[in-house]
Design a protein that fits this description.
9 strands; alpha/beta; 13 helices; nine-stranded mixed beta sheet; 2 domains; single chain
């Protein structure tokens, strides 16, 4: 079991979130072997520990790239000031840190920024992700909201990405029954993206959690949407894809769920609907479990 981090280690992990998502490789290796505080000191000094194995490119260019990114990170005192109660930080070893994130291995986040009232670890113990297309149909939005509402009524938290379409329908479905829901964002927890969801994010924070591996103030990018999908898949015990086109980014989240050994489910749709073609592919080629009702999802989750 990981020991609780010291204050210095927590601030160092928070600082590392300005470097980008944990994607394995040399930085994750440094943090794993030496701890965040030491790793941060090595980066700032430009020194590397003896015996470091070869890195892509040159070690000097890699460290220089990290140093450039650290120029945007606030001083430790300012980072501590960001943790004002409204926003908090969860690190490996903290009581709130979900152990299922360990399944990400070297791609585990350095830390997670949180905004909301729920306890992340406790809430994720019984949770399911509901994800899908931003350009959802009326059918898809209804199914997502109905499934989320029923899951929440039966004590399951609903995890999604806070986007338009299926994500929003899932969050609202859980909120409608006063159930907890978690939005994992591709930006800082204080950045409402999309802006039209500002009220929705406030409602989620009041009843659940806003989560991000990106520090406050950070804006979205396409790559960040893909990177956050691994966290959605890792936190949830199972993932339900409600609608997805053949080349939808939602299939990236499904891939993470499958690769992590999580339960992967998909909702079928009309054979004439392009928005359901990805779901049919998941069922046909990826052996996702076909689910057509909230009862199907709950039954599958209860068998885990």
């Amino acid at each position: 079991m990981t020991s609780p981090p010291s204050d210095a280690e927590r601030i160092a992990r928070a600082t590392l979130t300005w470097l980008g998502a944990s994607a394995g490789g040399p930085l994750a290796e440094l943090v794993s072997e030496h701890g965040a505080s030491v790793a941060l000191g090595l980066i700032r000094s430009g020194r590397l520990p003896a015996g470091s194995r070869p890195w892509p490119g040159t070690a000097e260019s890699t460290v220089a790239r990290w140093q450039a990114k650290l120029a945007d990170a606030p001083a430790p005192a300012r980072i501590a000031g960001m943790l004002d109660g409204r926003i908090r930080l969860a690190c490996p070893g903290d009581p709130e840190w979900p152990p299922q994130l360990d399944s990400l291995g070297s791609r585990q986040p350095y830390a997670l920024w949180l905004r909301g009232t729920a306890d992340l670890r406790f809430t994720c113990r019984r949770s399911a992700a509901i994800v899908g297309s931003r350009a959802s149909t009326a059918y898809g939005s209804y199914v997502a909201a109905d499934m989320a509402s029923a899951l929440a009524e039966n004590g399951w938290a609903v995890i999604s990405g806070g986007a338009f379409g299926i994500d929003a329908a899932a969050h609202r479905g859980a909120l409608s029954t006063d159930g907890p829901t978690i939005a994992v964002l591709a930006c800082g927890v204080d950045v409402p993206y999309p802006a039209d969801h500002a009220d929705l994010f406030d409602a989620i924070a009041a009843q659940g959690l806003i989560v991000s591996e990106w520090p406050p103030g950070q804006v979205v990018s396409r790559l960040r949407f893909l990177e956050r999908n691994r966290i959605i898949a890792a936190l949830a015990r199972g993932t339900v894809v409600v609608e997805a086109a053949e080349r939808s980014g939602t299939l990236n989240a499904a891939r993470h769920a499958k690769d992590l050994g999580r339960l992967l489910m998909a909702v079928p749709g009309p054979v004439t609907s392009a928005q359901s073609a990805g779901c049919h592919q998941l069922i046909r080629d990826w052996h996702a479990t076909l689910v057509t009702s909230p009862a199907d999802v709950i039954q599958q989750l209860q068998q885990l």
